[in-house]
């Protein structure tokens, strides 16, 4: 295996679970930017210096980081943040709620990671707007095969780096159709790609400022903005309002309600304002789920339309 451009390590002071910590950044089991292998977890990323491939493994309580590509140094330095090293979880108070308190005790590994890269979270979030997860993940794979760069270094076969905003703008209409992307999401993705540099954390600022900037772009709403700041900045409070399933998951777990709207969800989460997204993550990890009896949405293949 070729020597890594950067080799480093750090020793977490919490019971780190690498795969579960990074799982919010994985877009399905076939995501070309994310692989779990015998020698560690592999992930690709864009950086201000260029593309990078990172391998993360654990050895005797230490996290070993190897990185390749023009952005290797930037990416390697960002890995502790990816895994939650900067998360202030000690500030969280379950507030005496039995379920939240129990989940908090049983998941000491849970940290809210921050990737520091808005674009890497924004592009797939746009693809996930108003479609099934299966459909969004398929289009993400197709886009990476079409426009993503091969992963630098000795990455597992088939890994790709997310396409740059400039490369996304170069994709033609017939190529988008071949990927299966409909017109509304195509227009939204092109709109954010044309001004993508303004959304990176070093320019956009904190979570509130980034959400405001994102929502100023046609086709980008509060759900997409929330999904981005959760991943790029590790925001502990921003909730994905407008999510098809989330409101019912929260409502059933916290109040036993079978049907909940967004306003009711936010009311139930209000006691944890400032940490509402952390509560959501706890519920997604171990909260009760209401039984599903209704029909599932069938994915739409826009390539046949």
From TrEMBL:
Gene Ontology molecular function terms on file: alkylated DNA binding; DNA-3-methyladenine glycosylase activity; DNA-7-methylguanine glycosylase activity
GO cellular component: cytoplasm; protein-DNA complex
Catalytic activity annotation: Hydrolysis of alkylated DNA, releasing 3-methyladenine, 3-methylguanine, 7-methylguanine and 7-methyladenine
Entry EC number(s): 3.2.2.21
Domain of life: Bacteria
Keywords: DNA damage, DNA repair
Classification via Gene3D superfamilies: Hypothetical protein, domain 2
SMART domains, A to Z: ENDO3c
GO BP terms in the entry: base-excision repair, AP site formation; DNA alkylation repair
Enzyme class, first EC level, given as a word: hydrolase
InterPro entries the record matches: Alkylbase_DNA_Glycosylase/TA, DNA_glycosylase, HhH-GPD_domain
Sequence ranges assigned to domain HhH-GPD in this UniProt record: 127-290
Keyword DNA repair carried by entry: yes
PANTHER family registered for this protein in UniProt: DNA GLYCOSYLASE, DNA-3-METHYLADENINE GLYCOSYLASE
Protein name: DNA-3-methyladenine glycosylase II
Organism (species): Blastococcus haudaquaticus
């Amino acid at each position: 295996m070729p020597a890594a451009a950067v080799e480093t390590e750090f020793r977490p002071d919490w019971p780190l679970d690498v795969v579960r910590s990074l799982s919010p950044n994985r877009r399905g089991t076939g995501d070309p930017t994310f692989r779990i292998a015998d020698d560690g977890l592999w992930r690709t990323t864009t950086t201000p210096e260029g593309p990078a491939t990172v391998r993360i493994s654990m050895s005797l309580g230490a996290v070993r980081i190897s990185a390749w590509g023009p952005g290797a140094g930037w990416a390697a330095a960002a890995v502790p943040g990816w895994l939650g090293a900067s998360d202030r979880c000690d500030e969280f108070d379950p507030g005496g709620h039995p379920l939240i308190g129990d989940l908090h005790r049983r998941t000491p590994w849970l940290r809210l990671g921050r990737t520091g890269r808005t674009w890497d979270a924004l592009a797939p979030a746009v693809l996930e707007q108003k479609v099934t997860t299966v459909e969004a993940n398929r289009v993400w794979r197709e886009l990476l095969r079409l426009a993503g760069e091969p992963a630098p270094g000795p990455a597992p076969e088939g890994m790709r780096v997310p396409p740059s905003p400039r490369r996304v703008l170069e994709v033609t209409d017939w190529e988008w159709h071949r990927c299966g992307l409909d017109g509304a999401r195509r227009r939204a993705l092109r709109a954010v790609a044309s001004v993508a540099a303004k959304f990176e954390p070093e320019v956009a600022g904190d979570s509130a400022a980034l959400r405001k900037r994102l929502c100023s772009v046609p086709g980008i709403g509060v759900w997409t903005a929330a999904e981005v700041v959760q991943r790029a900045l590790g925001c502990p409070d921003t909730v994905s309002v407008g999510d098809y399933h989330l409101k019912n998951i929260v409502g059933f777990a916290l109040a036993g309600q079978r049907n909940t709207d967004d306003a009711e969800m936010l009311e139930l989460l209000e006691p944890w304002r400032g940490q509402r997204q952390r509560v959501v993550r706890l519920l997604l990890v171990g909260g009760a789920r209401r039984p599903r009896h209704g029909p599932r949405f069938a994915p739409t293949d826009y390539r046949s339309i």
